[in-house]
Amino acid sequence: MLEIPESFNLAKQLNQTVKDKVIKNVIAAQSPHKFAFYFNDNPNGYNALLSGKKIEHAVPVAGQVEITAENTRIIFTDGVNARYLAPNEKIPEKHQLLIEFYDNSHIVCTVQMYGVLHAFIQGENDNPYYHMAKDKPSPLSEDFDIKYFEKIVSATKPTLSAKALLATEQRIPGLGNGVLQDILFISGINPKTKIKFLDDSDIKKLFQNIKEVLAKMTENGGRDTEKDLFGNYGNYKTVLSAKTYKEPCPVCKNAVMKQAFLGGNIYFCPVCQPLKV
């Protein structure tokens, strides 16, 4: 799933790979998917909208990637797997979006559980999640400082959990259930601990590790649980994830717990991340 580290890496790779290429043809919704979402529910209009447009650049927008093609924009969100296919490389039979360039290279997108594949004229997208992602400061920026984070904490109901604080209601766009596992582990905070039980020291550690862990993930091209534009896994080795939870805690060697919580699995060490009550 695209989160902050992966969107930064994907935008970088798109700029290195398809910048200045001209779109020849677009096929959208060839393989129907109930949870693949298109702008104004009109995938059939994508070819007329995008054909002939030159790719100018791609930028990360929290957990999304935005591609500028002259007066149009293309958005990929979490859940979208975007892959670059070199000229004459085989195109998979099933896909939700296929962008063909004049040099016969392609960008092919498939959707797992859900994903947004928007193409629109600049200024027409009034989706609130898109605008929040663009308007709120990234944890990788200097604008995301301790005062800003403390405002987020103080504006959140104290009965909500640490996971809810980080990964719900778009409080920090692009920070989701995947990256928060290592952030909370390194901070020594249980995902289920309620905000009211976090002291000033906890808040400072949490802020510091949001900044530092996301920076490490981004510098290493994303997590080793997620694939990049070429189908390769990122180089950041996750501490706690679906890939590692069966191994003992790397600090205390006790068993790591896996539990369903708030719409996704959480991984934590009950010794290193004791639940505060």
Spatial shape: elongated
* Helicity range: 25-40%
Distance between the termini: 32 Å
Total number of distinct structural domains? 2
Main beta-sheet strand count, sense and barrel state: 5 strands, mixed
Strand content is 15-25%
Task: Please tell me how large the radius of gyration is.
Answer: 20 Å
CATH superfamily of the largest domain: MutM-like, N-terminal
By CATH, the topology of the largest domain is N-terminal domain of MutM-like DNA repair proteins
SSE layout and pairing:
Elements: H1 4-17, E1 23-28, E2 36-38, H2 46-50, E3 57-61, E4 64-69, E5 72-76, E6 80-85, E7 97-101, E8 106-111, E9 115-121, H3 128-135, H4 146-154, H5 162-167, H6 180-187, H7 200-219, E10 257-261, E11 264-268
Please give a handful of descriptors for the protein shown:
277 residues; alpha+beta; Helicase, Ruva Protein, domain 3; five-stranded mixed beta sheet; 7 helices; 25% helix
Structure description:
- The protein is of the alpha+beta class.
- The chain has 2 domains: about 5-135, Alpha-Beta Barrel (N-terminal domain of MutM-like DNA repair proteins); about 145-270, Helicase, Ruva Protein, domain 3, CATH 1.10.8.50.
- Helix content is about 25%, strand content about 20%.
- The chain has 7 helices and 11 strands.
- The chain has helices at about 5-15, 45-50, 130-135, 145-155, 160-165, 180-185, 200-220, and strands at about 25-30, 35-40, 55-60, 65-70, 70-75, 80-85, 95-100, 105-110, 115-120, 255-260, 265-270.
- Strands 2-9-5-4-3 form a 5-stranded mixed sheet. Strands 1-7-8-6 form a 4-stranded antiparallel sheet. A two-stranded antiparallel sheet has the order 10-11.
- The chain is elongated and about 60 Å long.
